[in-house]
Amino acid sequence: AEQRRSLYRMDRLAEREAAPEAGHRGAPAPAPLAELLQLGGPCALGDSVDVLWNPVLPEQVASLHRGTVRLWSLSHAAAASSASESGAAPSPREEGSFGCGRWDPHHAHALALACESDLLTLDTRSMKSAVAVADAHEQPVRGLDYNPNKPNTLLSSGDDYHVKVWDLRKPLTPVLSLLAHAHWVTSATYNRFHDQLLLSCGTDSQVKLWRAAAISSAPPSLDYEEADPSEVEADGIVRPYTDHEQSVFGAVWSAADAWIFASLSLDGKVVVNHVPPSEKYKILL
After folding, report:
1. Residue 128: helix, strand or coil by DSSP?
2. What is the dihedral of CA 12, 14, 17, 18, to 10 degrees?
Protein backbone atom coordinates (compact mmCIF):
# COMPACT_ATOMS: atom_id res chain seq x y z
CA ALA A 1 0.00 0.00 0.00
CA GLU A 2 1.16 3.54 -0.70
CA GLN A 3 0.19 7.19 -0.33
CA ARG A 4 0.21 10.01 -2.87
CA ARG A 5 -0.06 13.77 -2.39
CA SER A 6 -2.12 15.42 -5.12
CA LEU A 7 -3.27 18.94 -5.90
CA TYR A 8 -6.79 19.31 -7.31
CA ARG A 9 -8.80 22.14 -8.84
CA MET A 10 -12.44 22.75 -7.84
CA ASP A 11 -14.42 23.85 -10.90
CA ARG A 12 -17.84 25.52 -11.30
CA LEU A 13 -17.90 27.00 -7.79
CA ALA A 14 -19.36 30.29 -9.02
CA GLU A 15 -22.22 28.43 -10.74
CA ARG A 16 -23.08 26.48 -7.60
CA GLU A 17 -23.03 29.59 -5.42
CA ALA A 18 -25.39 31.36 -7.82
CA ALA A 19 -27.79 28.39 -8.04
CA PRO A 20 -31.27 28.57 -6.43
CA GLU A 21 -31.23 27.76 -2.74
CA ALA A 22 -34.69 26.20 -2.44
CA GLY A 23 -33.88 22.54 -2.03
CA HIS A 24 -30.93 23.13 -4.34
CA ARG A 25 -33.29 22.55 -7.28
CA GLY A 26 -31.64 23.48 -10.50
CA ALA A 27 -28.16 23.38 -9.01
CA PRO A 28 -25.57 21.93 -11.37
CA ALA A 29 -24.39 18.41 -10.63
CA PRO A 30 -21.12 18.24 -8.71
CA ALA A 31 -18.21 18.28 -11.11
CA PRO A 32 -15.41 15.76 -10.57
CA LEU A 33 -12.24 17.25 -9.13
CA ALA A 34 -9.53 17.81 -11.70
CA GLU A 35 -6.11 16.58 -10.57
CA LEU A 36 -3.48 19.15 -11.50
CA LEU A 37 -0.34 17.43 -10.28
CA GLN A 38 1.24 15.19 -7.64
CA LEU A 39 3.81 16.30 -5.11
CA GLY A 40 6.61 13.83 -5.73
CA GLY A 41 6.16 10.12 -6.14
CA PRO A 42 4.26 7.63 -3.98
CA CYS A 43 5.43 6.95 -0.44
CA ALA A 44 4.85 4.15 2.03
CA LEU A 45 1.47 4.00 3.76
CA GLY A 46 1.66 6.01 6.98
CA ASP A 47 4.70 8.05 5.92
CA SER A 48 2.77 11.13 4.76
CA VAL A 49 1.56 13.22 7.71
CA ASP A 50 0.17 16.42 6.20
CA VAL A 51 0.29 18.89 3.32
CA LEU A 52 0.51 22.55 4.37
CA TRP A 53 -0.18 25.49 2.04
CA ASN A 54 1.76 28.66 2.83
CA PRO A 55 -0.87 31.36 3.60
CA VAL A 56 1.55 34.16 2.71
CA LEU A 57 3.17 32.69 -0.42
CA PRO A 58 0.48 30.84 -2.42
CA GLU A 59 3.07 29.25 -4.69
CA GLN A 60 4.69 27.37 -1.79
CA VAL A 61 3.56 24.08 -0.23
CA ALA A 62 5.18 21.91 2.44
CA SER A 63 4.65 18.16 2.63
CA LEU A 64 5.21 16.68 6.05
CA HIS A 65 6.50 13.11 6.35
CA ARG A 66 7.48 11.03 9.34
CA GLY A 67 11.21 11.55 8.85
CA THR A 68 11.44 14.69 6.71
CA VAL A 69 9.70 17.86 5.60
CA ARG A 70 9.80 18.82 1.92
CA LEU A 71 9.21 22.22 0.36
CA TRP A 72 7.57 22.51 -3.06
CA SER A 73 7.36 25.46 -5.45
CA LEU A 74 4.33 25.60 -7.72
CA SER A 75 4.67 27.17 -11.13
CA HIS A 76 2.08 29.79 -12.16
CA ALA A 77 0.84 30.05 -8.55
CA ALA A 78 -2.84 29.02 -8.39
CA ALA A 79 -2.74 27.52 -11.90
CA ALA A 80 -0.08 25.13 -10.59
CA SER A 81 0.93 23.49 -13.84
CA SER A 82 3.97 21.85 -12.20
CA ALA A 83 5.70 21.48 -8.83
CA SER A 84 9.40 21.26 -8.09
CA GLU A 85 11.03 20.33 -4.81
CA SER A 86 12.92 23.37 -3.53
CA GLY A 87 14.19 22.09 -0.21
CA ALA A 88 14.07 19.37 2.43
CA ALA A 89 15.01 18.97 6.08
CA PRO A 90 15.29 15.77 8.14
CA SER A 91 13.76 15.12 11.54
CA PRO A 92 15.98 16.60 14.27
CA ARG A 93 15.71 13.36 16.26
CA GLU A 94 17.42 10.26 14.97
CA GLU A 95 14.50 8.00 15.77
CA GLY A 96 11.86 10.72 16.04
CA SER A 97 9.16 11.59 13.56
CA PHE A 98 7.26 14.75 12.70
CA GLY A 99 3.71 14.83 14.00
CA CYS A 100 2.24 18.14 12.86
CA GLY A 101 3.14 21.54 11.44
CA ARG A 102 1.81 25.06 10.90
CA TRP A 103 2.90 27.96 8.69
CA ASP A 104 3.44 31.31 10.42
CA PRO A 105 0.81 33.76 9.08
CA HIS A 106 3.08 36.71 9.94
CA HIS A 107 6.35 35.49 8.40
CA ALA A 108 6.43 34.04 4.90
CA HIS A 109 9.42 31.76 5.48
CA ALA A 110 8.67 30.36 8.96
CA LEU A 111 7.20 26.89 9.46
CA ALA A 112 6.53 25.52 12.96
CA LEU A 113 6.97 21.77 13.40
CA ALA A 114 6.50 19.24 16.17
CA CYS A 115 8.84 16.26 16.39
CA GLU A 116 7.79 13.92 19.18
CA SER A 117 7.85 16.18 22.28
CA ASP A 118 10.05 18.88 20.69
CA LEU A 119 9.03 22.11 18.96
CA LEU A 120 11.02 23.89 16.28
CA THR A 121 10.57 26.57 13.67
CA LEU A 122 12.15 26.12 10.26
CA ASP A 123 13.51 28.97 8.15
CA THR A 124 12.46 27.70 4.73
CA ARG A 125 15.00 29.90 2.93
CA SER A 126 17.85 27.85 4.39
CA MET A 127 15.82 24.83 5.58
CA LYS A 128 17.55 25.18 8.95
CA SER A 129 16.06 25.42 12.42
CA ALA A 130 15.55 28.98 13.70
CA VAL A 131 14.04 28.22 17.12
CA ALA A 132 14.17 24.89 18.95
CA VAL A 133 12.44 23.91 22.19
CA ALA A 134 13.51 20.49 23.43
CA ASP A 135 10.86 18.59 25.40
CA ALA A 136 8.30 21.38 25.08
CA HIS A 137 5.78 18.79 26.28
CA GLU A 138 6.39 15.69 28.37
CA GLN A 139 4.78 13.53 25.67
CA PRO A 140 4.29 13.91 21.88
CA VAL A 141 2.86 17.17 20.56
CA ARG A 142 -0.39 16.72 18.62
CA GLY A 143 -1.33 20.24 17.56
CA LEU A 144 0.13 23.66 16.73
CA ASP A 145 -1.48 27.01 15.96
CA TYR A 146 -0.08 30.52 15.58
CA ASN A 147 -1.78 33.50 17.13
CA PRO A 148 -3.37 35.19 14.07
CA ASN A 149 -3.10 38.69 15.56
CA LYS A 150 0.11 38.63 17.62
CA PRO A 151 3.42 37.68 15.95
CA ASN A 152 5.88 35.20 17.50
CA THR A 153 3.17 33.50 19.57
CA LEU A 154 2.63 29.76 19.15
CA LEU A 155 0.01 27.50 20.75
CA SER A 156 0.78 23.80 21.28
CA SER A 157 -1.17 20.82 22.62
CA GLY A 158 0.07 17.37 23.53
CA ASP A 159 -0.43 13.93 24.96
CA ASP A 160 0.66 15.24 28.37
CA TYR A 161 -2.85 16.70 28.80
CA HIS A 162 -1.47 20.26 28.48
CA VAL A 163 -2.03 23.29 26.27
CA LYS A 164 0.86 25.75 26.18
CA VAL A 165 1.50 29.19 24.69
CA TRP A 166 5.04 30.14 23.64
CA ASP A 167 6.74 33.46 22.93
CA LEU A 168 9.20 32.33 20.26
CA ARG A 169 11.55 35.21 21.10
CA LYS A 170 11.99 33.76 24.62
CA PRO A 171 11.16 30.07 24.25
CA LEU A 172 12.81 28.67 27.39
CA THR A 173 9.51 28.50 29.24
CA PRO A 174 5.89 28.87 28.05
CA VAL A 175 4.07 32.10 28.85
CA LEU A 176 0.99 30.00 29.64
CA SER A 177 0.61 26.33 30.58
CA LEU A 178 -2.83 24.80 31.15
CA LEU A 179 -3.63 21.32 32.44
CA ALA A 180 -6.44 21.35 29.92
CA HIS A 181 -7.84 17.81 29.74
CA ALA A 182 -7.92 14.51 31.58
CA HIS A 183 -6.35 12.70 28.61
CA TRP A 184 -4.55 13.54 25.34
CA VAL A 185 -5.20 17.02 23.93
CA THR A 186 -5.74 16.40 20.22
CA SER A 187 -6.18 20.01 19.11
CA ALA A 188 -5.98 23.60 20.35
CA THR A 189 -6.76 26.64 18.20
CA TYR A 190 -7.00 30.41 18.41
CA ASN A 191 -10.14 32.34 17.60
CA ARG A 192 -9.23 34.17 14.37
CA PHE A 193 -11.08 37.36 15.34
CA HIS A 194 -10.51 37.50 19.11
CA ASP A 195 -7.31 35.75 20.18
CA GLN A 196 -8.35 36.04 23.82
CA LEU A 197 -10.34 32.87 23.14
CA LEU A 198 -8.78 29.42 22.80
CA LEU A 199 -10.54 26.20 21.91
CA SER A 200 -9.24 22.75 22.88
CA CYS A 201 -10.48 19.18 22.57
CA GLY A 202 -9.22 15.81 23.67
CA THR A 203 -9.66 12.09 24.02
CA ASP A 204 -11.51 12.66 27.29
CA SER A 205 -14.49 13.42 24.98
CA GLN A 206 -14.59 17.08 26.01
CA VAL A 207 -14.31 20.40 24.18
CA LYS A 208 -13.21 23.38 26.28
CA LEU A 209 -13.33 27.12 25.76
CA TRP A 210 -10.57 29.15 27.44
CA ARG A 211 -9.92 32.82 28.12
CA ALA A 212 -6.31 34.04 27.77
CA ALA A 213 -6.78 37.80 27.64
CA ALA A 214 -3.61 38.72 29.54
CA ILE A 215 -1.34 37.34 26.80
CA SER A 216 -3.54 38.28 23.84
CA SER A 217 -3.10 41.05 21.29
CA ALA A 218 -5.67 43.08 23.26
CA PRO A 219 -4.88 42.62 26.98
CA PRO A 220 -7.19 44.20 29.56
CA SER A 221 -6.52 47.89 30.22
CA LEU A 222 -8.39 48.24 33.49
CA ASP A 223 -7.48 50.78 36.12
CA TYR A 224 -7.06 48.25 38.91
CA GLU A 225 -6.99 50.91 41.64
CA GLU A 226 -10.55 51.95 40.77
CA ALA A 227 -11.94 48.69 39.38
CA ASP A 228 -14.25 46.51 41.43
CA PRO A 229 -12.26 43.28 42.12
CA SER A 230 -15.37 41.22 41.41
CA GLU A 231 -15.40 42.59 37.85
CA VAL A 232 -11.78 41.64 37.13
CA GLU A 233 -12.02 38.05 35.93
CA ALA A 234 -8.96 35.82 35.88
CA ASP A 235 -8.00 33.97 32.72
CA GLY A 236 -8.81 30.27 32.55
CA ILE A 237 -11.66 27.99 31.62
CA VAL A 238 -14.79 29.70 30.29
CA ARG A 239 -16.85 26.59 29.78
CA PRO A 240 -16.48 22.84 29.11
CA TYR A 241 -18.75 21.27 26.46
CA THR A 242 -19.77 17.66 27.07
CA ASP A 243 -21.88 16.91 23.99
CA HIS A 244 -19.62 14.07 22.78
CA GLU A 245 -19.46 10.51 24.07
CA GLN A 246 -16.20 9.49 22.38
CA SER A 247 -12.77 11.00 21.80
CA VAL A 248 -12.84 14.39 20.08
CA PHE A 249 -10.19 14.73 17.38
CA GLY A 250 -11.07 18.08 15.84
CA ALA A 251 -12.39 21.47 16.91
CA VAL A 252 -12.49 24.45 14.54
CA TRP A 253 -13.70 28.04 14.64
CA SER A 254 -16.04 29.39 11.99
CA ALA A 255 -14.25 31.40 9.31
CA ALA A 256 -17.19 33.82 9.06
CA ASP A 257 -18.70 34.09 12.56
CA ALA A 258 -16.36 34.83 15.48
CA TRP A 259 -18.65 33.17 18.02
CA ILE A 260 -19.37 29.81 16.36
CA PHE A 261 -17.26 26.64 16.47
CA ALA A 262 -17.66 22.96 15.60
CA SER A 263 -16.19 19.73 16.92
CA LEU A 264 -15.87 16.19 15.55
CA SER A 265 -15.56 12.97 17.56
CA LEU A 266 -14.40 9.45 16.72
CA ASP A 267 -17.95 8.18 16.17
CA GLY A 268 -18.51 10.76 13.42
CA LYS A 269 -20.65 13.07 15.53
CA VAL A 270 -20.37 16.77 14.62
CA VAL A 271 -21.51 19.36 17.16
CA VAL A 272 -21.86 23.09 16.48
CA ASN A 273 -21.66 25.36 19.52
CA HIS A 274 -21.25 29.03 20.34
CA VAL A 275 -19.39 31.24 22.78
CA PRO A 276 -21.63 32.11 25.76
CA PRO A 277 -23.21 35.57 25.34
CA SER A 278 -21.75 36.70 28.67
CA GLU A 279 -18.21 36.03 27.40
CA LYS A 280 -18.97 37.62 24.02
CA TYR A 281 -20.07 40.90 25.60
CA LYS A 282 -17.06 41.01 27.92
CA ILE A 283 -14.94 41.20 24.77
CA LEU A 284 -17.12 43.58 22.79
CA LEU A 285 -18.10 46.04 25.52
Report:
1. strand
2. -110
Q: Which residues contact 116 (CB under 8 A, 6 or more apart)?
A: 93, 96, 97, 99, 140, 141
What's the average model confidence in pLDDT over 98-116?
97
Nearest Cα residue to 66 out of 133, 119, 128, 115:
115
**What is the C-alpha to C-alpha distance for residues 47 and 44, in angstroms, rounded to an integer?**
6
Q: Is the pLDDT of residue 230 over 60?
A: no
Q: 104: closest CA among 87, 115, 119?
A: 119
Longest dimension (CA), the chain: 67
What secondary structure does DSSP assign to 95-122, as a single string?
T--EEEEEE-SS-TTEEEEEETTEEEEE
Q: What is the DSSP code (8-state) at residue 187?
A: E
Average pLDDT over all residues of the chain: 90
Q: How far apart are the first and last CA of the chain?
A: 56
Higher-pLDDT residue of 8, 270: 270
Instruction: Determine phi and psi for 89, rounding to 5 degrees.
Output: -140, 135
Give the bridge partners for 68, in sequence order.
90
- Quickly state the pLDDT bin for 22 (edges 50, 70, 90): very low
- Residues with Cβ within 8 Å of 150's Cβ and at least 6 positions away in sequence, in order, are 195, 216, 217
Let me know: does 251 contact 200? Beta carbons within 8 Å.
yes
CA 170 to chain centre: 21
CA 177 to chain centre: 18
Closest Cα partner for 39 from 71, 77, 79, 16? 71
**Separation of CA 53 from chain center:** 12
**Mapping DSSP to helix (H, G, I), strand (E, B) and coil, where does residue 238 land?**
strand
